[in-house]
Q: What sequence folds into this?
């Protein structure tokens, strides 16, 4: 079975503890503190491996932990750093918080390794705590604790075009004709159990990647049937080719099929229903000539307000296929080239620090207020304020950390300026 989901436990390494020791040498009876620092904990790193196309490796092993830093030692020796844990995943893998389902990391466009959980800092040895009044400190700093999290890995295939439709309408036959893919083809439902990827090569360097998404049935968005398992793979596609059995070989109504599947797409993710969609009326060779024009006119009339272009084709004979492919190719040129990437919704670094005292809110001058602190710096570093989700997170951060309440206590009024390091905005309720 195609493995496109896995739940795993990840943990960075704990920082090594600082060491307590004193210099003891011949002729130096009262040597000072010489305890070394602890080593840094290992990082938990994700990296894309082009050779992988499933998450099957993560079905058998569930826990992945980086190495802990070693304790410091005498003579000011720093402990060894913990070993990093590197997790290799296929391109298109999305990492989500298992509890909330929110996106932490999308590996769609990542070419460099990504440190998801940083290892803990090593603690300082007692050599750092000597003062004029405390020349023999007997304590050292413990290492920073490890970060840990349960995450869901989801593979959403990266393809320009998604081939959708009810089971047994000819999607696998179509894919085998237009690409070098060799999907299993037979005359029964759910022949395709895996998303099949293929490359469409057109003249003069034109072409695109297409994915045959296994059949989606009514109720799929609610977990009915096998189709639900593959809805996630449509999420990255920029254009969808909706294949229907125009000849009604199995007695299905192509118009009702299109309406039903689009309802499932909208129920699963409303954004999917807004993506460009092209209707491929398949199996034209299986119906009389006089009936072909009738069914095409019916489809055009039914979806005239949806801006869906209709192409009569035959996946078996190749009739109309080239015209369809060139239309889709030109349509893709009007859309962004980069694969669709999901915005970060869960900011793990901010979950670790609930200390509101690390946030300083003060009035710099009448009408100008500042908000500073390590937690604020981290929030700004991990938040894309230009995205809608990022700005919503920023507003939630200001409210949940009591910043808005503290500004009001200081007497802020509408139109006053609030500064967060390099960011400044006018305050309005």
A:
């Amino acid at each position: 079975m195609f493995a496109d989901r896995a739940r795993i436990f990840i943990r960075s390494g704990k920082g090594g503890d600082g060491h307590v020791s004193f210099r003891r040498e011949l002729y130096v009876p009262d040597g000072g503190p010489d305890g070394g620092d602890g080593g840094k904990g290992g990082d938990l790193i994700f990296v894309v491996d082009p050779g992988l196309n499933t998450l099957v490796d993560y079905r058998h092993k569930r826990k992945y932990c980086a190495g802990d830093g070693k304790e410091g030692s005498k003579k000011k020796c720093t402990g060894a750093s913990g070993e990093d844990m590197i997790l290799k995943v296929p391109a298109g893998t999305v990492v989500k918080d298992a509890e909330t389902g929110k996106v932490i990391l999308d590996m769609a466009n990542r070419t460099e390794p990504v440190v998801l959980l940083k290892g803990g800092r090593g603690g300082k040895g007692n050599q750092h705590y000597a003062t004029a009044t405390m020349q023999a400190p007997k304590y050292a700093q413990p290492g920073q604790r490890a970060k840990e999290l349960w995450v869901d890995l989801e593979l959403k295939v990266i393809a320009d075009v998604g081939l959708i439709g009810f089971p047994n309408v000819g999607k696998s036959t179509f894919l085998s004709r237009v690409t070098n893919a060799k999907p299993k083809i037979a005359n029964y439902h759910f022949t395709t159990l895996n998303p099949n990827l293929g490359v469409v090569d057109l003249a003069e360097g034109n072409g695109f990647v297409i994915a045959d998404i296994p059949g989606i049935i009514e109720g799929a968005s609610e977990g009915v049937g096998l189709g639900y398992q593959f809805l996630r793979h449509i999420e990255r596609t920029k254009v969808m080719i909706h294949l229907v059995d125009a000849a009604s070989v199995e007695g299905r109504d192509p118009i009702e099929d299109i309406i039903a599947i689009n309802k499932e797409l909208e129920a699963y993710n409303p954004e999917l229903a807004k993506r460009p969609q092209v209707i491929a009326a398949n199996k034209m060779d299986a119906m009389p000539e006089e009936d072909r024009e009738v069914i095409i006119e019916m489809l055009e009339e039914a979806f005239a307000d949806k801006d869906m272009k209709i192409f009569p084709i035959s996946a078996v004979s190749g009739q109309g296929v080239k015209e369809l492919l060139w239309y889709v190719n030109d349509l893709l040129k009007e859309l962004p080239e980069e694969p669709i990437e999901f915005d970060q919704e869960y900011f793990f670094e901010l979950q670790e620090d609930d200390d509101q005292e690390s946030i300083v809110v003060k009035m710099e001058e009448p009408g100008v207020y500042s908000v500073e602190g390590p937690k604020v710096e981290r929030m700004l570093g991990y938040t894309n304020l230009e995205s809608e989700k990022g700005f919503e997170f920023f507003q939630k951060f200001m409210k949940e950390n009591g910043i808005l309440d503290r500004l009001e206590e200081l007497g802020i009024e509408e139109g006053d300026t609030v500064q967060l390091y390099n960011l400044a905005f006018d305050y309005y309720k």
